[in-house]
Amino acid sequence: MKKTAPRLAPWQIAGIARLFGALAEVSRIRLLQALMAGPATVGELVHRTGLQQANTSRHLSGLLAARLVERQRKGKFVMYSIGDPLVYRLCALVCGKLDREVQKAASNLRKAI
User: What is the pTM of this model?
Assistant: First the structure.
């Protein structure tokens, strides 16, 4: 049975493109993964990801603009955290797809041997 996609308005399509654009950068994915372990400061995220401080701040700004992360001031520190539960669902979907592809490739390799 063929699934039909919902009819989207141009502004909705543009919003989807912006969201995927925010996710189309390896460093941003690394930051989201690091934040899935819990809220962190920029310094903690630099340590968790190995990214440079300037890049970390720049990419966090992009994720903040896309409303995928949120920030909260705690004294003299700014804590970043996952701002939308969608991040967890997207990760599960994409990781699941990658796992299925790896399993299929492994199965094909076993059949070829």
Answer: 0.80
